[in-house]
Design goal:
single chain; 274 residues; 12% strand; elongated
Length: 274
């Protein structure tokens, strides 16, 4: 019954993360709280159908749903392909279209751990302009490393504080994701991080619209972003993709983005994987 106890431990973690009681989850899945209690304690082995219902009710990401199925002794339900897989050709084409159409403003494609998988030429031009390129291919590390983009961010504490809030929320929402926890710990280990950021602040409300402000050679640039995700994904990779498109918050920033295109040789737009 070790396998079932493991399933029970995962369910308890996710139920706590979603702030659901056993009764809440039982009602959501059409079972009894007694049966759910037996599953959580390992007295009862859940069926595959029950595991799927529980994962759906807990709104678990596809990767975590696979992990729950494996813990219960069942084969994973969702595939995980690389973006270069033939089956994802149309998806990749759509992503490239979005990031290329964002020119002359930066656009990035990231996974749920903030790793930058793809960026358009505008993103590379801006990183080169601000810091002669970036040391990291992870968005969080770029903004926390004093030797990276952090050095050019005017409102660093506001931006980094928002990133930390997102990381704490992701760790709480996916308690079994050790890599999310590791990224949070790595970000918090950088110098001059306020001690209060080490704890999740449930009272902190995200700003209505966060503007990132950079400064280079006395010139200030301001951007805000939109995030695009895919609806109803059936593949782990697609489920975890986020496309961030940035927009200039003022005319001066828009003018500089266009000027950087003119300085970029032929100025041809293209997206590049990192």
């Amino acid at each position: 019954m070790i396998r079932d106890r493991h399933v029970g431990a995962l369910l308890r973690e996710w139920r706590a993360a979603r702030r659901m009681s056993q009764l809440d989850l039982a009602l959501e899945t059409g079972t009894s709280s007694r049966h759910l209690s037996c599953v959580e304690t390992g007295k009862t082995a859940p069926s595959r159908q029950m595991v799927t219902k529980l994962a759906e009710a807990l709104k678990m990401p596809l990767r975590e749903r696979n992990a729950l199925l494996l813990a219960a002794g069942y084969a994973p339900e969702y595939t995980e392909r690389g973006l270069d897989a033939p089956e994802l050709t149309q998806v990749k084409r759509a992503i490239q279209f979005i990031v290329e159409q964002q020119e002359p403003y930066p656009a990035f494609v990231m996974n749920r751990r903030w790793d930058i998988l793809m960026a358009n030429r505008a993103a590379m031009r801006m990183a080169t302009y601000l810091r002669n390129g970036s040391r990291h291919t992870n968005m969080v590390l770029q903004f926390f490393d004093p030797e990276d983009l952090r050095a050019a961010v005017v409102n660093w504490e506001e931006v980094a504080g928002d990133l930390i809030r997102h990381l704490h929320d992701e760790v709480a929402a996916a308690p079994s994701d050790v890599r999310a926890r590791a990224l949070l710990d790595r970000a918090l280990a950088y110098p001059a991080v306020p001690p209060r950021w080490h704890e999740r602040d449930l009272a902190a409300a995200p700003p209505p619209l966060l503007t990132v402000k950079f400064r280079k050679d006395g010139r200030e640039l301001s951007f805000f972003s939109t995030i695009t995700t895919f609806g109803t994904p059936r593949d782990v990779t697609i489920d975890e993709l986020r496309i961030e498109c940035t927009f200039p918050a003022d005319d001066a920033t828009a003018d500089l983005c266009r000027a950087l295109v003119r300085q970029d040789g032929d100025g041809v737009s293209s997206s590049r994987s990192r």
